[in-house]
Amino acid sequence: MVRVRYIHRPVKAGIILVNNPVKDLNIISHNSDDTISLGRKIGELAMSGDVFLLSGILGAGKTCLTQGIAYGLGINEYTLSPSFVLVRELYGRLTLYHMDLYRLENIQEIAELGLDDYLYGRGICAIEWANRGMPLFPEEHLSIEIVYKGDTERQIIFKAHGQRYIELLEKFENRTE
C-alpha cells in the first residue's frame, strides 16, 4: 500500500500551511536476506546528506537493514551494531555514519553528542533507535520502522518526509516490484 499525504500545521489567525509531504510504503520481509536486499536497494539510491531513521524493538532487524544499506553503498565489511561506540564510520561510494542510540537514556544525552556534523554532512546517516531523539533530527528524512511479525517475518514501514525522500521511495518501489 502506497499513499502520499500532506501534513498540515495550523498557524496564526486560522491559516493552515501545507508542510512537508509524506509518502508511506509497507513491505513484508520474510527473512534476513529479504531485509538485507531491501537495505541494499536503499543504499544504491542514497545520495550525499541522506538521513535514514530506524526504529523497532530489539532484534527487529535494524542492523540487518543497515548492512544492506552498506552493501548498496559498496561497503563490504560487516556492519556491527555501534551500541557501545555510538557511531561507526564505514567507507564506500559515500561514507556511512551508522549510529545507535539504544544506550542513551534521554534526549539531552543525545543532544550533547553534537550529531549535526554527521546529519548535515556529505555522508549517509543510518540511525538505529532514532525514536529516542526525533526532535533533534532533520525534518526531511526517511523513517523506517521494523515491526516483528514472527520468527523471521518483519513488516517494514517506510515513511518519506520531504520531496527528496518521496522521490527516493518512488524509485525504491519501482525496484521492488
Describe the structure.
- With 177 residues, the chain is of the alpha/beta class.
- The protein has one domain (2-176): Rossmann fold (3-Layer(aba) Sandwich), CATH 3.40.50.300.
- It has helices at 32-45, 62-72, 107-111, 116-119, 163-176, and strands spanning 2-10, 16-29, 51-55, 87-91, 95-100, 124-128, 141-148, 154-161.
| CATH architecture call | 3-Layer(aba) Sandwich
- Name the helicity range: 25-40%
CATH fold name: Rossmann fold
Distance between the termini: 12 Å
Spatial strand order of the main sheet = 1-2-8-7-3-6-5-4
Total domains: 1
Q: What order do the helices and strands follow?
A: EEHEHEEHHEEEH
Basic shape = globular
Quote the beta fraction: 25-35%
List its salient traits.
single chain; 177 residues; alpha/beta; Rossmann fold; eight-stranded mixed β-sheet; disordered N terminus
How are the elements arranged and paired?
Elements: E1 2-10, E2 16-29, H1 32-45, E3 51-55, H2 62-72, E4 87-91, E5 95-100, H3 107-111, H4 116-119, E6 124-128, E7 141-148, E8 154-161, H5 163-176
Parallel strand pairs: 3-6, 3-7, 5-6
Antiparallel strand pairs: 1-2, 2-8, 4-5, 7-8
Short description:
The chain has 177 residues and is an alpha/beta fold. It has five helices and eight strands; from the N terminus they run ββαβαββααβββα.
